[in-house]
Specification:
Strand content: 15-25%
GO molecular function: ferrous iron binding; oxidoreductase activity, acting on single donors with incorporation of molecular oxygen, incorporation of two atoms of oxygen
InterPro entries: Xdiol_dOase_suB
Largest sheet: 8 strands, mixed
Protein name: Protocatechuate 3,4-dioxygenase
Number of strands: 10
Helix content: 25-40%
Organism: Roseibium aggregatum
Number of domains: 1
Pfam families: LigB (PF02900)
C-alpha cells in the first residue's frame, strides 16, 4: 500500500507568491517569514515524497460564485497555474497522480460524498504558493499532485466535522492503494484574517498560536467547533483553517510536531505552518 509520510498545514497567502516573483524573500519584511519554512523544505528534500495531496480553496479563478462545489477533486493529467489577473506566473505545470485521484474519488462516493470531479482545471495561489514554500522553484515539480478543493468562500461552507470525515476517507484511499508511493498531505489556508466588513484587518495571534499546537495535539477541539466559532476566532477568511482538518484526520491520532512557524502580519493575515509525522 501507499504510505503517508507526513502532514503539513500552511498558509497560502497570495502576497507570498508576489514576494517570490519580485525577489523580496531576503527583505526585512519577508525574511522572517521565509526563514521559518527552511526546516520544512529540508524535510521534503530528505523525505522525497512521490505524491502531494493538496487541500485548498479556489479564490474566484476556476470557480465563481455562480457555481461553487462544496468539495471537488482533480483527476487531470496536468494542472496549469491559473492567470489570476496579472499574467501567468513563471512556474511549471503540475503533473497529476491520475490513477490514485480516481481511486480516491471512488472511495469518496463509496462513503457517501458527492465531489465534483474535475478532468480539466487550472489551479490558483491556493495550491501554487504551498508547493513553492515546500519545494522552491524547480524546473519540474518532484511530486505528482492530487488537488482537493474545499469551499470556504461562499456560505454555506462545509462543517469542520465533514472536513474531518473527508480526511478519514483520504487515509482509507491511501492505505488501500496497491502502489508504494510516499504521500505527503498539505492542508492549506489561514491563519486568522478577515478582508472585509467592520473587522477588516482582523488578526488573532493568540488563537493562531494555540491552533499551531492544538492541530497536532488536540484536534478534537477544532473538529468539534462550529463554523461560526471559526469565523469568530479566526475571521471570515480565517475559516479556511477547516481545510487543515482534512490533513489532520488522515494522520494517526497521535503525531509528532516536528516544526512550527508563525509570522504576523504577512499582508493582512496571520501566517505560518506546522510539520507533522505520525507517531507510533
Amino acid at each position: 500500500m501507499a504510505e503517508i509520510i507526513g502532514g503539513i498545514g500552511t498558509s497560502h497567502v497570495p502576497s507570498i507568491g508576489v514576494a517570490l516573483d519580485r525577489g523580496l524573500t531576503e527583505t526585512p519584511d519577508w525574511k522572517p517569514f521565509f526563514d521559518g519554512y527552511e526546516a520544512a523544505k529540508e524535510w521534503m528534500r530528505e523525505a522525497k515524497p512521490d505524491v502531494a495531496v493538496v487541500i485548498f480553496n479556489d479564490h474566484g479563478n476556476s470557480f465563481f460564485l455562480d457555481r461553487v462545489p462544496t468539495f471537488a477533486v482533480g483527476v487531470a493529467e496536468t494542472y496549469k497555474p491559473v492567470d489570476e489577473g496579472w499574467g501567468r506566473r513563471d512556474i511549471p505545470d503540475f503533473e497529476g497522480a491520475v490513477d490514485f485521484s480516481w481511486h480516491f474519488v471512488d472511495k469518496l462516493v463509496e462513503r457517501h460524498f458527492d465531489p465534483l470531479v474535475c478532468r480539466e482545471i487550472d489551479v490558483d495561489h491556493g495550491l501554487q504558493v504551498p508547493m513553492e514554500l515546500m519545494f522552491g522553484r524547480p524546473e519540474k515539480w518532484p511530486v505528482k499532485i492530487v488537488p482537493i478543493w474545499v469551499n470556504t468562500v461562499q456560505y454555506p461552507i462545509p462543517t469542520p466535522q465533514r472536513c474531518w470525515e473527508m480526511g478519514q476517507v483520504l487515509r482509507e484511499a491511501i492505505e488501500s492503494w496497491p502502489g508504494d508511493e510516499r504521500v505527503v498531505i498539505l492542508g492549506t489556508g489561514g491563519l486568522s484574517h478577515q478582508l472585509q466588513g467592520t473587522r477588516a484587518g482582523f488578526i488573532n495571534r493568540e488563537a493562531d498560536l494555540a491552533w499551531l499546537d492544538g492541530i497536532a495535539n488536540d484536534p478534537e477541539t477544532y473538529r468539534n467547533m462550529t463554523r461560526e466559532d471559526y469565523v469568530e476566532q479566526f475571521g471570515s477568511e480565517g475559516a479556511e483553517l477547516i481545510m487543515w482538518l482534512v490533513m489532520r484526520a488522515a494522520m494517526n491520532p497521535h503525531v509528532n510536531l516536528l516544526h512550527k512557524h508563525y509570522y504576523a502580519p504577512a499582508s493582512m493575515t496571520g501566517a505560518g505552518m506546522v510539520l507533522l509525522e505520525n507517531a507510533a
